[in-house]
Specification:
Structural class: mainly beta
Number of strands: 39
Oligomer: single chain
Length: 521
């Protein structure tokens, strides 16, 4: 009873503090009209004068490459447009990513060359002043080296093997980027990857062939991170072996972290013991490596808390291994009482590294529901699919691996199709974590002194900010009421500027667009 009372007191603090001022500086561009209706921000980089270079991808047709391309827009510190350029995609292939450094932009593309029967990765480089692009080949791979009928470059639908695609990752410091490609091991069908790392001047840092003596479908590539200097790649994989299959308890798999440099590689094996951990994320910290994810004591589709592994960045020795169940406060947030259970339908969203080494881990309760409509004379009819974006889950893990706090923010949002106005984007600064969401005018009151954010149509939503402090207390306020906006903003697709902890959103109403910059203080 005392634990429940404590949770209610904390929730009352949340309710009474919601009117506090959360300092955020907002700047809008002028409303403009695009030739193409659909676009989203893919990168933002501030210049030395306080302005920003924003790159947006656009899609104008029904097919993947019909009327596709990129807008490059350079704004001054007052969000006034200085220069713009449209880069249409005409060749068969895919843009893996875009880098901006100073006055130089690189478009990294992966295209198929019919004459040479090879896939060529190249960088198209230009100055922001003139946008005259010059190509430079980075590397090429023979057609037969890649898996047949499974190229799936940057595609969500790359076949059964989720690794089967070319992926580009820019490190957090924006000093280097990696490109990893799933290769075809024709003889033994074992796991085979090519990994390249370049700095922003397009100098090759690492060229590595990653091969494991295990069948390709038994090695699941989790993710990659690159060190700040670009000299080390850390690759995390989930592996199914004969030994793990015979485990009596817990997930029948293990994890492997591989450290890759220009000259060598080293692998550390670790497991989740009697627990289940469906997925982990690797994060390069200042003086060690962290792997973080949700875990369960029942099965991979349930979630009891967070697990944390801490390793030496050079020899990969494991210093810390922790499994921390969700806090009592989290359960009070979620259920209104201290409920001993496990959650489901949680999807990882963001992981941030704070200045003091703490990790903020954010997720969302996301699931799909189906309603069936009967046709005439009892025929099957059709089905409606609803994509639900409900509660926000946020947790903070100390530099030493302790779970400092975990909070659940009650939210109910759903859509019957693509709707970037639901869900949220998040950012951290100092000891605070910020979430930006669209909500209805009134916050719903739940049992046990809890509240819940609900949705309205995009054109009638308020833009809200929710702040969780370093100690786990949180508050909220309206940043922009719906009648203050000419267009609603797509909060699911916020893009972070690493230079000064700002978030950028694009708003759209028909073909009318507007950019919004939010700087947290």
């Amino acid at each position: 009873m005392n634990k429940i009372f404590l949770g209610v007191l904390c929730t009352l603090f949340f309710l009474t503090s919601s009117a506090q001022n959360i300092p955020c500086k907002l700047q809008k561009s002028e409303v403009f009209e695009d030739k193409y209706k659909h676009s989203e921000i893919v990168s933002v980089d501030e210049d030395e004068e306080g302005g920003v270079v924003i790159v947006r991808s656009y899609q104008g047709g029904l097919f993947h490459l019909a009327s596709s391309g990129y807008y490059f827009e350079h704004y001054d510190k007052n969000m006034k447009l200085i220069k713009e350029y449209e880069y249409p995609l005409e060749e068969r292939g895919s843009v893996l990513g875009i880098t901006v450094k100073g006055a130089k932009v690189n478009i990294i593309a992966f295209m198929y060359n019919k004459e040479d029967r090879a896939y060529v990765c190249s960088a198209n480089t230009a100055n922001l002043s003139d946008f005259v692009f010059t190509p430079k080949e980075l590397f090429r791979l023979k057609r037969e080296e890649l898996k047949k009928n499974r190229m799936g470059v940057n595609s969500m639908f790359a076949g059964y093997d989720k690794d089967n695609r070319a992926i580009m990752l820019v490190n957090k410091n924006k000093t280097a980027f990696s490109i990893s490609i799933d290769m075809d091991d024709k003889e033994e069908h074992n796991k085979l990857h090519k990994i390249y790392v370049y700095d922003f001047n397009l100098d090759l840092k690492i060229d590595h062939t990653f091969k494991r003596d295990i069948k390709d479908w038994k090695f699941q590539h989790e993710n990659i991170d690159v060190s700040a200097d670009g000299n080390v790649v850390y690759l995390l994989g989930k592996v199914y072996t004969k030994e793990t299959k015979e485990k009596e308890e817990g997930g029948k798999y293990r994890y492997e972290l591989t450290r890759i440099t220009k000259s060598d590689s080293k692998t550390q094996v670790f497991n989740v013991q009697e627990h289940f951990a469906a997925s982990l994320k690797v994060l390069v910290k200042k003086d060690r490596i962290a792997c973080v994810g949700f875990y369960s004591d029942r099965k991979d589709t349930r979630f009891k808390g967070l697990c944390y592994f801490d390793m030496d960045p050079v020899n990969l020795d494991i210093a810390t291994s922790k499994f921390s169940p969700f806090t009592e406060q989290f359960m009070v947030d979620k259920y209104g009482k201290n409920k001993d259970g496990e959650l489901k339908n949680i999807t990882f969203r963001d992981m941030f590294l704070a200045d003091n080494g703490d990790i903020v881990f954010n997720a969302e309760e996301h699931y799909v529901t189906v309603s069936h409509n009967m046709g005439m004379n009892g025929s099957m009819g059709y089905a409606n699919y609803f994509f639900n974006y409900d509660d926000i889950i946020s947790a903070r893990i100390s530099d030493g691996g302790e779970l400092l706090w975990a909070r659940n923010i009650n939210k109910r949002q759903s859509t019957d199709g693509s709707n970037p106005y639901v869900s949220y984007s998040s950012i951290i600064k100092g000891g605070n974590t910020f979430f930006f969401i669209n909500t209805a005018d009134k916050v719903k009151k739940l049992k046990n002194e809890r509240i819940q954010f609900n949705q309205k149509s995009p054109n009638r939503s308020n833009l809200n900010v929710i702040r969780i402090g370093q100690n786990g207390d949180f508050d909220y306020q309206i940043l922009l009421a719906d009648d203050e906006n000419e267009v609603p903003f797509m909060v699911m697709l916020g893009a972070i500027s690493k230079q000064n902890n700002s978030l950028y959103f694009i708003g759209r109403k028909g073909r009318n667009k507007q950019l919004l910059k939010i700087a947290v203080e």
